[in-house]
Specification:
By secondary structure, the protein is of the alpha/beta class. It is built from 8 helices and 8 strands. The site of zinc ion has 6 residues, from strand 2.
Length: about 220
């Protein structure tokens, strides 16, 4: 396994009126937080902007894994990185020159990911796979938290894992959407190492236990 397993709680499922306190409940258990940025255009929902990232940055030193569900990620790269995002993951077909966008984000000091939706094929990201730090396989269609895990997306996880191994790439393989202590098993068995979890973490009164359950199930699924 190229990377240790980690859980990135999605704050979309947290209480937005009390974000700092919510983050404090998961911080002891996780190295990353997942921030879902939606622009009301790429997806039919609006969530958070650079101002929220800046406010969170002042309260946490965790890696801010920023998922850009926006139609123009190039325009937003600098504002989010300046606000404190550590990585930006953008979607296919949102920029005319995605390889250049990867290098642009790196030049600005960020790490970069590419996201593949359940309705898309990994092949569509082929040009980017040698260049990115993270591949995000969506296990729901993006837009909302609390949706049911789409099992068919596991085929993309397996394909990504195989291509990563065959080419010696070092990116993290992340899954996002409907991930809990049950669905994580197939993700981990397929080769995913980075598990975004919103409802299954923030919906549990004991956040540390929720993260531990996901990690235990993932470890069990890969036999360690
Ligand atoms: C969906 C987002 C996810 C979402 C996951 O568009 O990208 O990160 O917050 O939430 P759960 O874990 O509740 O499916
Ligand atoms: Zn997300």
């Amino acid at each position: 396994m190229p990377h240790d397993h980690l859980v990135a709680p999605s704050i979309l499922a947290a209480d937005f009126a009390d974000l700092a306190a919510e983050v404090a409940t998961v911080e002891p258990a996780v190295p990353w937080l997942h921030l879902d940025v939606m622009d009301g255009h790429y997806v039919p929902n609006l969530t958070l902007g650079p101002g929220t990232v800046r406010a969170l940055r002042a309260r946490t030193d965790r890696h801010l894994d920023t998922h850009m569900m926006v139609s123009d990620p190039r325009a937003w790269a600098q504002p989010f990185l300046e606000a404190g995002s550590d990585s930006l993951t953008f979607h296919l077909d949102t920029d005319p020159d995605p390889v250049d966008l990867v290098h642009h984000v790196r030049d600005l000091g960020g790490r970069v990911g590419i996201a593949v939706r359940p309705s898309e094929r990994l092949e569509q990201a082929a040009d980017l796979l040698p260049h990115v730090d993270l591949v995000l396989v969506m296990t729901v269609e993006p837009g909302f938290g609390g949706q049911s895990f789409i099992e068919a997306a596991l085929a993309t996880v397996v394909e990504a894992h195989e291509q990563r191994a065959a080419n010696g790439w070092a990116w993290r393989l992340e899954v996002d959407g409907g991930v809990d202590a049950t669905t994580v098993r197939g993700c981990a068995a397929g080769g995913a190492d980075t598990f975004v979890a919103g409802s299954s973490v923030f919906g549990n009164a004991d956040r540390t236990a929720a993260v531990a359950e996901i990690l235990t199930a993932a470890a069990d699924a890969v036999g360690c």
